[in-house]
Amino acid sequence: MILVIFLMKKTSQICLEIQNYLNMRKLAFTLLTALFMIACGKEKSQDTNAGQTDATPNNEVSDYDPSRGEGKHTNIELSPNLDKAMADSGKRIAEVKCLSCHKLSDERLVGPGWQGVTERRTPEWLMNFVTNPDPMIDKDPELQAQLEICLVRMPNQSVSDEDARQILEFMRENDGVQ
Hints:
Layout: H1 2-53, H2 56-62, H3 84-97, H4 117-120, H5 123-131, H6 133-139, H7 141-150, H8 161-174
Helix pairs in contact: 3-8, 5-6, 5-8, 6-7
């Protein structure tokens, strides 16, 4: 009987220690999230002030082509028909690198949904954004507006040109290209 009471007390102590550990992790996560949000807010206000006092960043933005984006892809030739093998490869790549943040519908998850994206954006823009998101986010006013809604920058997934082309074909399939 004494052994049972001892084991019950010991189990209770272990449960309390686990609960305290989990509470500390929640607190640490909350604090890190708050610091991240504050840091992002300061960066935004500094960029806004810098743009008002210095004309050079505005000149860089004026060189930006919103239909093509920023990057090396200038002329992407697409067949009117879908390349099913390429779309299947693009789906496999997207499942690993993209679909944890994007839905195939028009619903936003972390990032915006993909439905209709090939109708709203040119192939060059999509290829440049998938392979080179950071400079485009910095220069594209629509992406900056989207960032204010989503609150998370798209990370650079180091997608190769070939993989990006396959993802583009999967996006076309998602938008109904046969």
